[in-house]
Amino acid sequence: MKSAKKALLVTGATTIVGLASFAGVANAATSSSSTGNDSLVNKIATKFNLNKSDVQAVFDQDRSEHEAERQQKLEDRLSQAVSDGKITSDQKDQILSKLKELQTYRDSIKDKSASERRSLMKDKMDELQQWAKDSNLSNYVPFGRGMGMGGPGAPGGNMAPPDDGGSSSSSSSSNTN
Question: Three-state secondary structure along 18-39?
Fold first, then answer.
């Protein structure tokens, strides 16, 4: 009976986390401050009389799964752009490398205050957007307008080639890294 109750509670917590994630609540909590995320984890753990570390594990697993899914979708879109001749394989590798650089940077500043992280990330995003513009890859990078929030070039966003009328795969092959 006790394990059935625990399984039911974990399933309930998983459902709540899934719904919260779908609604954007989990994303807002994890992207704001670690205190906000801890608060939501604490609230769920307290409300349903669960172990905080179990609830945190559900959040962490959900986030990892979503990140892996987004990464795969991005790689698939970039591979399609390579197949279509819109970017080169080298450009695809450069974009993926820049994404890893961004993740490493984000991880390196996670202990800073929310306002300091926002400022540092804005500077980093400006730098990466300039790189994308200089490399003629602005429409293929997911760290453009809104960084992952569905803006053009973002995961789930528009991966269309540049609309400047003169762009082609040959003009996008010249890089200035």
Answer: HHHHHHCHHHHHHHCCHHHHHH
Tell whether pTM > 0.90. Answer: no
Closest of 173, 156, 2 to residue 92, by C-alpha:
173
- Per-residue pLDDT tens digits for 46-56: 999 999 999 99
Residues 6+ apart with CB under 8 A from 136: 162, 167, 171, 172, 174, 175
Secondary structure (3-state) at 169: coil
CB 21 within 8 A of CB 49: no
Are residues 75 and 98 both part of a single domain? no
Instruction: Name the residue type at position 78.
Output: L
Count of structural domains, the chain? 2
Could you list the residue range(s) of the whole structural domain that residue 120 is in?
88-177
Which tokens belong to 42? 């604490």
The C-alpha atoms of residue 150 and residue 44 are separated, in whole angstroms, by: 28
Q: How many Å apart are CA 77 and CA 115, to the nearest integer?
A: 33
Predicted pLDDT at 36: 55
CA atoms of 151 and 162, how far apart (whole Å): 14
